[in-house]
Design goal:
This protein is an alpha+beta fold. The protein has helices spanning about 15-20, 25-35, 50-65, and strands at about 10, 40-45, 45-50. The protein has a single domain, classed as Recoverin, domain 1. The chain contains three helices and three strands, in the order βααββα. A three-stranded antiparallel sheet has the order 1-3-2.
Length: about 70
């Protein structure tokens, strides 16, 4: 794989919750208000988050703190 190509992992909800420390209801509240990335649909009853979106969100928190 060349450096220009990146592999995007998809994280299921338990992994996202463990990464950010939210409760289930807080996760969906923040998605609704637009302050957390929305999941991508994998099927009728399955969603996941792009790992890069979650990582970017976490990094943006540290940027806000530095301001």
């Amino acid at each position: 794989m060349s450096p220009a190509q990146t592999t995007t992992r998809l994280l299921r909800k338990p992994a996202v919750l463990a990464s950010v420390g939210f409760s289930n209801s807080e996760l969906y509240r923040r998605i609704k208000e637009g302050s957390f990335p929305a999941p991508v649909k994998l099927g009728v009853r399955a969603v996941a988050w792009r790992e890069s979106d979650v990582d970017h969100w976490i990094k943006s928190l540290s940027q806000e703190v530095k301001k």
